[in-house]
Amino acid sequence: MTTKTDSINAPGLGGEVDILEEQLLPPVNEFRRFVKVFFRRKIVLIGFIIVVLIVAMAIFADVIAPFGPYEQDLHNVLAAPDSTHLLGTDSLGRDLLSRIIYGSRVALSVGVITVLLSAAVGTLIGLVAGYAEGALQSVIMRLTDAMMAIPSLILSLIVASILNRGVLGVVIAVAITLFPGYIRLINGQVLSVKQNDYVMAGRSMGSHKARIMFRHILPNCLSPLIVQMTMMMGVAILSEASLSFLGLGILPPTAAWGGMCYDGYKYLMMRPLLSIAPGLAIMVLVFSFNMVGDGLRDALDPKLRGTSSN
Amino acid sequence: MLTYIVRRLIHAFVVIVIVSIAVFILIRLLPGDPIEMLISQTQLTETTPEMIEALRHDKGLDRPLPVQYADWFVQMIRGDFGTSIMRNFDIGKEIGNRVTVTLMIGLSAFVIGLVLGPILGIVSAVRRGKFVDNLVTVIANIGITAPAFWVGILLIFFFGVRLKLLPIYGYTLPWDDFWMSFKQSLMPIFVTALGPIATTARQTRSSVLEVMSEDYIRTAWAKGLNERKVILRHIIKNSLLPVVTLQGTMLRMVVGGSVVVETVFVIPGMGKMMVDAMLSHDYPVVQAVTVIMTLVVVLSSLIVDLLYGWLDPRIQYD
Fold this sequence. Notes:
Chain A: Belongs to the binding-protein-dependent transport system permease family. The complex is a heterodimer of chains A (310) and B (318). With 310 residues, chain A is mainly alpha-helical. Chain A has a single domain, classed as Orthogonal Bundle (MetI-like fold). Chain A is 73% helix and 0% strand. The radius of gyration of chain A is 25 Å and the shape is elongated. In chain A, 43% of the residues are buried. Chain B is mainly alpha-helical. Chain B has two domains: 62 residues, no CATH class; 213 residues, MetI-like (MetI-like fold, Orthogonal Bundle). The mean pLDDT of chain B is 83. Classes of the chains: A mainly alpha (310), B mainly alpha (318). At the A-B interface, α7, α8, α12, α13 and α14 of A face α1, α6, α7, α11 and α12 of B.
């Protein structure tokens, strides 16, 4: 802000002011500052590395996994861990480690698609509600309240049983519980960002509503949106796992960690690893995403304080 | 204050109506015709289309949807939840029986979370950076990120299968056999409470840390109050407000979590009823359970709001 007023007040001295400014405030590389704050905490770095590793694991599952996810060895059913099957085999003789590796594909794809879908829908509705205000806003917010009053797992269960049990069905079932959160977040953000002078300026210049919403307001809501999206990755992955565990999510034989926990649960006495290992995978992935979200919040929040008007 | 309560009550009622309509419509979209399932279950050897129609008429499923909805909603307000299509039991009575089980576990877990969460958060914040703080942070992170069913399975494995200390499934009401009930409830209550404890502890910790940097806390130290007084009178009192608002979410977590916990531990509560009804397409049961669960959540968040106003006099009711 100060730079602009200075140069306006002293139009002829523009160059000098710039030099002065540079001496007073050494240029901060935004990206480097972001990286520095983001990785300041060791646990965030660890979380970030684990996320990268699991993403790589999902992409290169065909190369890494010692066996296929559906490869059955009926002579070697419920085998104990050994050198060929590092974590043993399940009730159909499928290699547990390979199925966990392939399971990362379901977890990540459901997580990413769910978060993108719910964020897109929620942001759009939130923008409209916050910009419109009045009756439209109260109707949208009351409906949002109602959506958020239903325990999310219950709502997912109902929606999941309406849709077919593929990745898409589960994605919609989970996304429907997440998008009201974005509506609330963006609605609140819009209400405060709207007070800024540049929105007023845009309006007085006769900019189209959509242009003000997407070019002026939305970019200033991005920081909290990104943080929320990262945090919701974990929630989405956990919800998918719960649905699959209850038998209303991704159906077998597809390797999904939640469903694998349920299958393995029957053999808890004999082969505890069958249900414990996939659950551990869920926890590690969700934990890592939450750490990344924490780091992002630390790195993005100070900037947020600078831009919002209150 | 009174107008505020009335307005919040109307608001709560509107939410319930919207939810009930949404659930009613959603349930009608479920695949599978309950009448056909009922017929295949009763194994009637010969079914004529007339018999199917008669049965459909008998269950009231041949009327227009708005009529079915209005009828259901009015009956529900009178406390009549109809009968299960599949097993012909009175849903109201069945919920009455099962709600006790779910409430016993849910309320215990909620209260434990309400007490333990803030205590852990306060201790953690006051001893910031020390061993206790790190321990609480790790536990809180596990509580938030570990899937509830997995924690349940782990507990069953260690305390039930390995150590043989606790029964691994089922539920007994405390007034039937207190000791058995206690042993059976320990693990489910812990699993249900873990999420609320973790979330509340984290929220309390950051809220206490924020309050600790306020000017009036420095003043309290400066005027020579002892540590106990500063923490109890000044820090805790001011940092618990954001924690109270969180309790609505916690209740939602406990109520929704009952579905998973009751499935893992085979407990005959509302959550198990929900999953069973869902797998057998028992419309009226799913409808009733969802509305009851939502009602619990809406009413409790109303209580939380009022409590919040009572704790923080700065909030205006107008």
